[in-house]
Amino acid sequence: MPFLSNRSVLPRLGFWSLAVLGALGCGRAGIETGGQEEGISNHRPSNPPAPPAPPTGWPQYGHDAQRSGSTTAGPSAAPAVIWTADLPHAEHARLAIDALGHLYVGAWGLLQAFDSNGALRWKHEIDKGYIQGVAITTAGDVVITSQGVLEILSSAGDLLASVPLEGGNPSRPLIGDGDRVYVVADYDGHLQAFSPHGELLWSTSIAPGDRPLGTPAQGPDGALYVPTGSDQQHGLVKVSREGVVLWSKEIDGEFTGTYTPNSVSVRGDGTVLLAHVEARILAFSPEGESLFDTKLMGIIKAPAAFSGSGDIHVGHAWGVSRLTPGGEELWRVGPQVAKNDDLSIWCNIALVSGERVVAASLDGRVSGIADHERLWSVERGPLGAHDSWPQPDLIVGVDGTIYTGSWTERLYAIR
Predict the structure, then answer these.
(1) 365-370 and 373-379 beta bridge pairing
(2) Which end of the chain is more exposed for a tag (fewer CB within 10 A), N or C?
(3) Are 22 and 352 in contact (CB under 8 A)?
(4) Residue 138 sits in a domain of what CATH number?
């Protein structure tokens, strides 16, 4: 298994303390009025939020190994576009940023590194297709997955390791405890673990080969959770840090045959949140016990996010919903009668300081929301108009700058 051993020693940056505050939001329709939907309680939990942790950048999809989608950083009260950059295939932008403001952007055939002012630092070309995911280790190394390959680069752009992957399209990489790298192989059914230097530690079969696998998340006990799915079958698998399958759950329900895999995130108490593509949020205990199954209104394409209070925030095709820790929907911001692009959300949301949500909707806006009211919006290019089209990541840097792509082949920085 080829990998390069001539690596520089990089300082430990300590990116991985979990941010625990958050909030919600995105969109347009139904927001200007700030109206609450009939029949949905506005009761708020009495639990005080946990003390904020220092911002750590956004080093991987969902911010951290638990996919909390939460950071203590946040934009100003009236954000604006501060710079843009040319980015071919920006609709597929895969983004990560470290605590020093080093931004890494993967798209079709290319990984680019920018500084916080938008200046290009270096480029790295890949041989095959889209970059599926970008992540940063605590040592500052950059991990990318593309079709059949896992690559590790230094923060200066030097290739440190290139490792063949089993199966076809890999998931986004998960950087877990000890800088272990976890990847699942779509249509291969394997979860693989690698050292920070690219050595394969183990490979475990977790699902039949005809099931697309979603991006994994790691719980506070070190276990991995992987969502599975196909046209008519969906599930959730728990795997130990040593690669042993601990349990597997089949998800009942009616399915429309969508290909998109489900998403998973794990709260600090170990509760596993499965964001089911068919508009459901399911919760399980670490032992696999079903805790709740809440039906929402629109297809869900990204993990549920959560704040220190335990409230759950979900972006979906009908807007943004906030749920109690027990799964009761507190409110929804979105169209009242029929779905429209103004508040249709197909990419991840970010919870930021002050119990606010930042999200991008199909109408070409990046918006901030708190308490079912839109606080601000910024125009930028539209997203794809179909749920099967690629959608860019949305991340927040340590200084509160928001980064995202669009279908106008531009990368946007908003603060």
Answers:
(1) antiparallel
(2) N
(3) yes
(4) 2.130.10.10
